[in-house]
Write a structure and sequence with these properties.
88% of the residues lie in helices and 0% in strands. Helix 6 runs antiparallel to helix 7. The protein is flat and about 65 Å long.
């Protein structure tokens, strides 16, 4: 069976190369506004940033500058993706709730205008970004990881970072509590993403514990993400309601849509609360799995240090 740390580096390099290729393949259609490509690029950059955070701690390969470039890409496409999600969500809810077509068309039109404006801003933000160059830099980092023999500290780095992100999510879930609130739920969603992508980057490190955690985190992230998408849609709806040419009748119809979205947010939040304890239990199990990998090595090191000190005392006494 391959050594655990060797597997860690192999998986990490595979994640780096796979997502670098995805970024390079989807960047051009994403720049043109392709809906699926925009989403794929953002996911690829997030996964790359998670993997690079590990690589940075294993050896200094210039990951910080690269991570900043990737974050720039993630953010540049953020508002475009946001408008795409809002449009799809509004049209889906309109069909189920039988909202007035003219009002829905007005919200959709306003959303697409914002998307167009944000596409222009995205192009400016990415004017100096070259996806193929980013891919080459990431491939070079992967190659150096494989050849500079970082295995001696790779597992310790992985466990420390996963433990840190596990703790961050535990804190975020606790702060979110049981009261519906936009910001606490947003922070919990971000912490969930960061832990999930970290576990994906080092798949197999904790045997089956990380596999179970990834599945649970994916479901939790999807639920939090749906609430977040509804909250963003609500902002778009309210912005449409304040447009100068909106009549009192249309404003009242938009208010009905606003209330329907708010109601669905709160219903989803109620479902989320029922899942909260399962998340806490999963995080406790993940922490225990990490501790089981860290403690024996630490205990062994302490025992060796005690033996050396005892040996020195005996030598002095002799």
């Amino acid at each position: 069976m391959p050594h655990a740390t060797t597997q860690v580096v192999k998986v990490l390099c595979r994640v780096l190369r796979h997502n670098a290729e995805a970024l390079a393949s989807d960047m051009s259609p994403a720049r043109r506004g392709d809906v699926a490509a925009v989403h794929h690029v953002r996911v690829a950059t997030r996964r790359l940033r998670a993997a690079l955070s590990f690589a940075e701690k294993m050896g200094r390969f210039g990951e910080r500058d690269l991570a900043r470039d990737l974050k720039r890409v993630t953010r540049a496409f953020g508002h475009v993706r946001e408008a795409d999600v809002v449009r799809e969500l509004i049209l889906d809810m309109a069909e189920r709730h039988d909202w007035p077509p003219l009002v829905v068309a007005r919200i959709e039109r306003a959303t697409m205008v914002r998307r167009s404006d944000r596409r222009d801003a995205m192009r400016k933000a990415l004017s100096g970004v070259r996806a193929r160059a980013i891919k080459k830099r990431i491939e070079a980092i992967a190659s150096r990881l494989e050849t500079t023999n970082p295995e001696a500290r790779a597992l310790a780095v992985i466990l420390a970072e996963v433990r840190r992100r596990t703790r961050k999510l535990s804190e975020a879930v606790e702060i979110a509590g049981t009261v519906y609130g936009v910001e606490p739920l947003h922070r919990a969603r971000i912490a969930t993403k960061k832990l999930r992508y970290a576990l994906e980057a080092v798949e197999g490190t904790l045997d089956r514990a990380d596999d179970r955690a990834r599945r649970r985190l994916k479901r939790f992230q999807e639920h939090l993400g749906h609430i977040h998408d509804l909250q963003v849609a609500q902002r778009y709806v309210r912005a449409t309601q304040t447009e100068s040419d909106v009549t009192a009748t249309v404003a009242a119809q938009i208010a009905v849509i606003d209330r329907a979205i708010d109601l669905q947010c709160r219903q989803l939040h109620g479902q989320l609360l029922r899942e909260r304890q399962a998340i806490v239990t999963m995080l406790d199990g993940l922490s225990a799995a990490i501790a089981s990998r860290v403690t024996p090595r630490r205990v062994g090191r302490m025992a060796r240090m005690r033996a050396r000190r005892s040996g020195r005392r005996m030598a002095v006494g002799a």
